[in-house]
Amino acid sequence: MQNQTQAGQHRFKGHDAVLARAQDAKKEISIRLIDGTYVSGVIVARDRYTVSLRIPSKGVWIYYKSAICGFSVAE
């Protein structure tokens, strides 16, 4: 869900806007998955369907956005 701006940049809306800001700021994010588990890490990549997190001690893991129930970003 992206809108093209005049400058050629994308402006994100809703949850994707929060994910984009967390990725740009390299802030840690805690994600709750549909099975009730939580994962925490730093977003290293996002696309239309997935979010890739760098999780300390586990490396980079990829999660489908459809499997995410909620998230919180460290202040």
Describe the structure.
This protein is α+β, with helices and mostly antiparallel strands. 16% of the residues lie in helices and 52% in strands. It has one helix at 14-25, and strands spanning 2-4, 10-12, 28-33, 38-46, 50-55, 59-64, 68-73. The strands form 2 sheets. Strands 6-5-4-3-7 form a 5-stranded antiparallel beta sheet. Strands 1-2 form a two-stranded antiparallel sheet. The longest helix is centred in the first third of the chain and has 12 residues, at 14-25. The chain is globular and about 30 Å long. 9% of the residues are buried. Mean pLDDT is 85; it is low at 1-8.
Query: What sort of overall outline do the alpha carbons produce when their principal axes are compared?
Result: globular
Gyration radius over CA: 13 Å
Low-confidence stretches: 1-8
Main sheet makeup: 5 strands, antiparallel
**Major sheet: order of its strands?**
6-5-4-3-7
The strand count comes to 7
Question: Roughly what percent helix?
Answer: 10-25%
* Total DSSP helices: 1
Query: Cα distance, first to last residue?
Result: 25 Å
Mean pLDDT: 85
Output the structural class: alpha+beta
Which strand-content bin applies to the residues?
over 45%
Topology pattern, helix = H, strand = E: EEHEEEEE
